[in-house]
Every structure is written in structure tokens, then in C-alpha cells.
Amino acid sequence: MIRIDQDRHINPAFVASMEWDHRHYMNGSDSVLIITMWDGKVHRVKHQPWYLNGPDAHKVEREILAAMEKGDAP
């Protein structure tokens, strides 16, 4: 299981796809990792490592990819 934020964990074996949503606003920008599971459930992980217990979406992506390469996921 991989922790994607403070309250949610996912099994990398059931990840169907991942993509980034980069939004740019007048006062800054947001980066969100969108994880789609095999059953169609979508998890959005907003990259906020500078907050207390904020998720690091880049780390989550690396952990999922490493699990896939290692063979823990299809």
C-alpha cells in the first residue's frame, strides 16, 4: 500500500493510469496528480509538501512507478 495523502492509501497493483494537471492562475499555480484505479475511481493528489503533513505528489508518483517496475503491480 502506498500513502497518497494523510487519510488515503492505495494499492499500486490496481492503478490503471496516472496523469498531471498543471493549472496556472494569476496568483500562482497548482499541480495535481490524478490517479485512476481499475474500477474507475479517481484520486486527486494536490502537491503541497510545504504544509504540515502535506502530500508530495511527485514522491507518490515515484513510489507507484517503482512498485510497477519491481513487479508489485501489473
UniProtKB/TrEMBL annotation:
The lineage of its organism: Bacteria, Pseudomonadati, Pseudomonadota, Alphaproteobacteria, Rhodobacterales. It comes from the Bacteria. This is Uncharacterized protein. It comes from Rhodobacter capsulatus (strain ATCC BAA-309 / NBRC 16581 / SB1003).
